[in-house]
Structures are given as structure tokens and as C-alpha cells.
Amino acid sequence: MEKESDKQKVLIIDDRRENIVFLANNILRPKGYDIITAMDGEKGLHKALEERPDLIIMDLRMPRMNGLEVLSALREEQCHIPVILTTFHGSESVVVEAFRLGVKDYVIKPYTVEDMEEAIKRALGEGRAEDKVQLRERIRKTNQQWERRVRELSTLHDIGKAVTSLLDLEKIVNRVVEAAVFLTGAEEGFLLLIDQGTKELYMRAAKGLSQREARSFRVKVDDSLSGQVITTGKPIMVSSVQDQEKFKLKTGYLVKSLLHVPLKLRNEIIGVLSVHNRISSKAFTDNDLRTLTILAGHAAVAIENARLYQSMEEKAQQLSQILSTQKGKTKGDTNKVMQLVRGIEIHEQRLKKSREEAEQLTEELRALVAAAEDLVKRLKVQEKEAEELAEGWRT
């Protein structure tokens, strides 16, 4: 007696043996599927074309050929085997491209047995009428999530464009923190910069904190979670497993969940952008992390622009003072004038480069918005098709 798969053949393409073993032993063999494996994209493509399995479960990142390259090659060969893509990287551009190339479904790692079983069920079309209704509901919810993501990205685009056009540092840091709190739904947020004299992090702007808390907030780089972000250049996201569990931002300052991202300018970390919840146990998500990282990128460029502009103005004022006095005729003042002029020229060049970087960030974000909008349109079509399919099964 055949099991529920009726001996359907599944090809697993993954460069990590433990992933293949998990899929085979915990999901596929118990359901009676025949299994074929490959440990890189090139071999996987060859086996797919040779064996013609009923389903392919494939990782995105692999040696020799990645998941998207395999999908593209299958499409060129007019090979319409349903594919489930597994990945840690749920970015908008990857998802859009995978759907464009014909992927049937995708599962974000780490996934549960139930997650993968549902994806396999959808991909192989094993569902009964209620499964079609569930599929329609899933697509509808996915569509709503992506519509929300489009709104977030559009807001990010507008904010990024606005802050990088400002040259007032005070306005920049306050707008960035307000945007961070708004976009993540956090209770509080702040922006820390490095004090080059003491090598401490001090609070430059805050939202939801009292003035006393903001003024007194200073932490050492080598003795804090935010300092760890400066040292490693990597974000930190933590949340309490139990309601009473809290994390220390500094002595006497405890929170239930927090998200720190670096303010990174090229290869230099200039500060930390942070959001946190002191009262609510609501955890931050990977989507919050991606959103805050994009915002921090715009913030770092805007802060650099403001600092360069302020330095240029100071040098210009010094130059004006020298030229307006008789002392400007001395040899010493002439040398100082030349130094100031050269300093202004260097700052102008750096400011121009920084503005070009800001424009590039804005363009990249605009492209993400367009890609996400395109995905929403595709999902709307799928939602309509699923609804028609569900109606057909009911009649």
C-alpha cells in the first residue's frame, strides 16, 4: 500500500548535509516520498533535468549556482517542476525575483516540520476544497503584509530623501529618531554618537524619554550592548522570553525588548540608532531590523553632510575674519588663508561625494518600493485566481 505521496519524487538541493538529512528523515520519508539529493546548484540542475522529479526543495545560497540561477536555467529549459525555495534571506528583491522566475513557494529558515509540510502540500496540489480556501486566505494575508511593506518602504523613501537634504544636525537626528519609533511601533527610541574625547556613547536625540534621562545617558563602548554594536558593526535584537525578564541599557535603565543598529558610513561606525520597549513585551521583528538598518544608512550620510557643512561654514567665517583685517597682509596670515581655502575645497569634495551616496541610497530604496509594488500586483492576481479556484471546488 502506497503512502499519501503515492511515491512522488522529490529533489533536495542544499549544500548543507544536515538540512538534507532533516528534510529526508523528518518530513519526506515518513510521507513515503522518493528522495534525490544534490549538494550544489549545478549538480541539482543536472539531476532536475535528468530525473524530472515531482518537486524540488532548494536552498537559495549554494556553491557553483545559487537558487535564482537554477530557477532561471530551469525556466530556459521549459522545465516546469514546482520549486520550494528555502532561505534565511527574505529580502524584497530576492522574493520578487524568485516569483518572477516561477518559484511555487518559499519557506524562511529556520522552519518547522509543519511549515514545510504545508508548503509541499501547496506545491504538489494535494489539497481538497478547504485547502484551496486556506490558500486563498494565505495569499490574501500575504498580500496585506506586502501592501503594508510597500507603505513602510514608501515612508522610508520619503524620510530618507528628507533627512539627506537637511544640513541642520539637530533637525536630522530628531527626525530620524521620530521615524524609527513610528516605523517600528516602539515605545521609545534614541540616537547615540561617539564622544571622541572620552570614547563614550552619548545621547544626541531621543523620543519618549525625559530630558533628564536623555542628558544623563552616557555609556562606555566596552561595557554596553550599544557599545557592542560599535565594536562589531552588527545590529543587536533581543526580547524577553518571560514577562519579568529585562535587559540593561545602562545602570538603572531596563527594557523588555530592544533593537540596536549601527550608524555606518562607508567602513566607519559613527553611532547607534536604537528603539526599545520598557512596558510592552512586544518583540521586534526581522522586518523592523531591515527597516531600521535602511533608515540608519540614510541617517549616517545625513549626519556626515551636516558635519561637513558646519565645518565648511566655520572655515569660511575664519577666512572672512582674516581677509577683513589688516593682519591678512602678513605672511603668517597668508599661509593660514591658503590652509583655510584648501580645507574648504576638501570639505566641498567630501560633501559632494556624500550627497552622491545619499542619492544612490534613495535610488536603491525607490527600486525596492517599485519591486514590492510589482509583487503586490502579482499577489493580487494570485488572490483572484485562488478565489476562483476555491469557488470552483465548492460548486
Description:
The chain is built from eleven helices and 13 strands. By secondary structure, the chain is of the alpha/beta class. It has helices spanning 17-28, 41-51, 67-76, 92-100, 113-124, 129-165, 169-184, 211-216, 225-232, 286-323, 331-394, and strands spanning 9-13, 34-38, 55-59, 83-87, 105-108, 188-195, 200-207, 218-220, 236-239, 247-250, 253-255, 257-265, 268-277. It has three domains: 9-126, Response regulator (Rossmann fold), CATH 3.40.50; 129-151 and 367-395; 166-324, Beta-Lactamase (2-Layer Sandwich), CATH 3.30.450.40. Strand 12 (257-265) and strand 13 (268-277) form a beta hairpin. The model is unreliable at 1-5 (pLDDT under 50).
Task: Produce a short descriptive summary.
The protein has 395 residues and is α/β, with parallel strands linked by helices. It contains eleven helices and 13 strands.
Described by strand count, sense and barrel closure, the largest sheet is: 6 strands, antiparallel
Domain module tally: 3
Structural class by helix and strand composition: alpha/beta
* Count of DSSP H/I helices: 11
What is the general shape? elongated
CATH class of the largest domain: Alpha Beta
Q: CATH fold name of the largest domain, please?
A: Beta-Lactamase
What's the CATH architecture of the largest domain? Answer: 2-Layer Sandwich
CATH superfamily of the largest domain: GAF domain
The oligomeric status of these chains comes to single chain
Q: Ends: how far apart? A: 32 Å
Specify Rg, calculated over alpha carbons: 27 Å
Total strand count, please?
13
Task: Report the mean per-residue pLDDT as an integer.
Answer: 77
Following the backbone from N to C, one meets helices and strands in this order, namely EHEHEHEHEHHHEEHEHEEEEEHH
Helix content: 55-70%
Poorly predicted regions: 1-5
In order across it, which strands form the biggest sheet? 8-7-6-13-12-9
